[in-house]
Amino acid sequence: MTLWRLFLRQIGSPFDALLVGVAVLAILLHQAADATIVLAIVAASTVLGMRNEYRAERTIAALRSRISRCANVVRGSDVVRVDVAELKGGEAVLLRTGDIVPADLRITSATALECDESVLTGEALPVAKREGDAAYMGTAVSGGAGAGMVVAVGAATRYGEIARRAREIQPRTRFEQGLGQFTTMLLYITVLVSSSVFFVSVLLHRPLAESLLFAL
User: Whole-prediction pTM value?
Assistant: First the structure.
């Protein structure tokens, strides 16, 4: 995602629109100090939002980079190295120290086999794998050797599910919903108070444009 698209996604709330409107009005009235303060607030909020979203995008890219593009597969009596996109369910994949597991596997043989699953679980210690255990795509073989049968590939794997969910718009939590309602209430109050102040200023025969800026 480009920085421009990240920026557009951050500028969209009614409150930001109100602040930008205030800044524009302040500029038109040659109130440079007021405009600078308001725009600084909007810029700080936008930069923080872009930073968080950019870090999320980097996390997804890091997940993808850990997926091995090739795997050693037993086909017939030969061991061939194939692209992971060509893997099919039921095929036998050979694993050795340093490999990245190319798909979700069910271990069929293991010799002191251990996998680093920190990318999925956060657990720093390697997990010993025995016959019948599961090995997940994206995890690293940290010791030993073994073989496994492909049970899931691509987006159907546990790793793929994490990447997919990272891209989805997650349902808003009750806290986020409450915060949104509170923000809406503040916006209503802002409109009500600003309108009242503007109306009183006009009744006091103050300049129209300055009254609007003062009210906002």
Answer: 0.50
